[in-house]
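dumping this here so i dont lose it
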């Protein structure tokens, strides 16, 4: 027993089959992998397949501009002084010499004229913020119109919506920091909106400003929110968004070989990463070129903020223009209740603003409830195949544009030599009329495109070749579509509207449908009933026509 034990303990350990590291870098990689498991994680994810389509790059632009904003923002924080303490300017910009101003404004002017590369970095930071919000908006429009928000991606839609809203508000806080006359006017506008909130408006104003307007705390507080709070939340949402994209796999357009259970495309490494890296530098370079040749937010031209002055041509960045449009659109109505004045001219738009935003956030859940569809969807819809959804999106865009016009009614009046009252009344009418007209036109347009697709499938494409039949009739010869085109035009599903339950059950007992059930059935008929989609051609119809019966 002891001998066997001795033999076992004295036996040589088998040598490892793993090759020794070739160099120090490989040795460091092995050491790291042994503690973090990076190799197995990378092996599982770096070969993940991503489909290739130009519209998917919109999301990449959002990511790259966010990175640019962070990089340039870090540089700017090294020189910006978020203080409202008053100083006398004695910098290199002569027109401002000797003027009293806040340290925030003075440091912004110094960044622009005295810090090496400061003005270019400021310009890149501001332009990247504008492009970020624009790319987010267009990216969400792509997701909306193609139905990419359906199960299992409803939560990711909410994450994207929150990123868009946080980006808009962080942009507002950012261009409020220089404390110039333009940004100060915007802050005053915000203060007026807060004060219009009944009961709690004055308390919110005191907590935010630390006293009467403009106070001494608003810029330091905005600075903390702008550089720490909102970017931190956005970074967390962005990571969660990308994790869900990896977990759920990417959506793809319909095509041969593409199903709800696979993804056809290129691997993340090395092809997709190489393209993505090049695209990042392309986006960065383009924004840098724009920033170098197109001046934005020249704070030195309007001077420091003073409470007794206002910039007459004050306009917010485009993505916040619709909020000002709501205010300018609303008549200046006021009512008195219990000795208090309610400013409806500001309160009503302030109530509409979050309702519009919330409706966008919850839309995937509303459509899912209307359809009752519990399946996962990884194939995108062509917008024409969802006429009501596409029409709703187009109507929302038209409303957004109407509000932008309302927010700049003074500029339209002066540049087009019109009465500002005429412009205001026109946009008030357009607020109610234009979205309805756009909805009707877009829906009919989509139905027309569906009819054209059906005609292509059944009759083929026009060749321009004219043929005379034996009995003297002239016809144009049509050529059959390739199989991939036939698949593209017929791969979409056609959702059937939800039907109300039978009036009586199997025992003959009357069964009354509730309000929600009837509402759901009515909405479902509006979305997918007769007049809201064109039946796609069946295999029998295609066979009958292509076999010679009625096919030219």
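and the seq i came up w/
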């Amino acid at each position: 027993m002891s001998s066997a034990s001795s033999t076992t303990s004295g036996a040589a350990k088998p040598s490892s089959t793993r090759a020794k590291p070739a160099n120090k870098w490989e040795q460091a990689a092995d050491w790291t992998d042994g503690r973090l498991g990076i190799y197995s994680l990378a092996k599982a994810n770096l070969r993940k397949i991503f489909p290739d389509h130009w519209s998917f790059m919109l999301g990449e632009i959002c990511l790259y501009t966010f990175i640019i904003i962070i990089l340039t923002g870090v540089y700017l924080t090294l020189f910006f002084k978020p203080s409202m303490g008053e100083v006398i300017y004695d910098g290199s910009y002569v027109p401002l010499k000797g003027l009293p101003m806040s340290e925030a404004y003075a440091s912004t002017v110094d960044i622009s004229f005295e810090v090496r590369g400061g003005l270019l970095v400021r310009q890149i930071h501001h332009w990247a913020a504008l492009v970020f919000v624009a790319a987010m908006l267009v990216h969400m429009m792509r997701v909306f119109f193609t139905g990419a928000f359906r199960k299992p991606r409803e939560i990711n839609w909410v994450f994207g919506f929150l990123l868009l809203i946080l980006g808009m508000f962080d942009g507002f806080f950012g261009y409020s920091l220089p404390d110039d006359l333009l940004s100060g006017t915007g802050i005053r506008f915000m203060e007026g909106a807060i004060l219009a909130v009944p009961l709690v408006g004055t308390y919110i104003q005191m907590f935010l400003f630390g006293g009467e307007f403009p106070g001494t705390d608003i810029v330091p507080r905005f600075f903390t929110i702008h550089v720490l709070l909102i970017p931190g939340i956005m970074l967390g949402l962005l990571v969660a968004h990308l994790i869900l994209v990896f977990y759920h796999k990417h959506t793809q357009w319909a095509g041969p070989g593409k199903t709800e259970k696979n993804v056809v495309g290129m691997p993340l490494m090395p092809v997709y990463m190489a393209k993505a890296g090049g695209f990042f530098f392309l986006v960065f370079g383009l924004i840098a070129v724009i920033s170098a040749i197109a001046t934005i937010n020249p704070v030195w031209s309007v001077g420091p903020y003073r409470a007794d002055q206002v910039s007459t041509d004050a306009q917010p960045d485009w993505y916040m223009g619709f909020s000002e449009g709501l205010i300018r659109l609303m008549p200046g109505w006021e009512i008195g209740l219990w000795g208090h004045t309610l400013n409806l001219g500001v309160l009503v738009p302030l109530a509409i603003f979050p309702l519009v935003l919330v409706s966008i956030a919850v839309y995937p859940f509303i459509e899912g409830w209307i359809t009752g569809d519990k399946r996962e969807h990884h194939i995108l819809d062509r917008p024409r195949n969802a006429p009501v959804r596409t029409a709703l999106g187009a109507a929302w865009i038209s409303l957004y544009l109407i509000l932008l016009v309302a927010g700049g009614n003074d500029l339209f009046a002066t540049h087009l030599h019109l009465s500002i009252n005429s412009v205001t009344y026109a946009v008030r009418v357009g607020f109610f009329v234009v979205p309805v007209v756009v909805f009707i036109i877009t829906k009919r347009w989509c139905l027309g495109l569906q009819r054209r697709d059906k005609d292509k499938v059944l009759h083929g494409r026009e060749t321009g070749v004219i043929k005379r039949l034996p009995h003297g009739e002239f016809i144009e010869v049509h050529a059959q579509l390739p199989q991939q085109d036939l698949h593209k035009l017929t791969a979409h599903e056609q959702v059937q509207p939800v039907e109300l339950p039978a009036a009586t059950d199997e025992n003959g007992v009357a069964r009354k449908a509730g309000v929600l059930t009837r509402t759901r059935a009515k909405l479902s008929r509006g979305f997918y009933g007769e007049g809201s989609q064109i039946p796609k051609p069946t295999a029998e119809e295609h066979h009958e026509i292509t076999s010679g019966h009625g096919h030219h």
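Confidence is low (pLDDT under 50) at residues 1-17.
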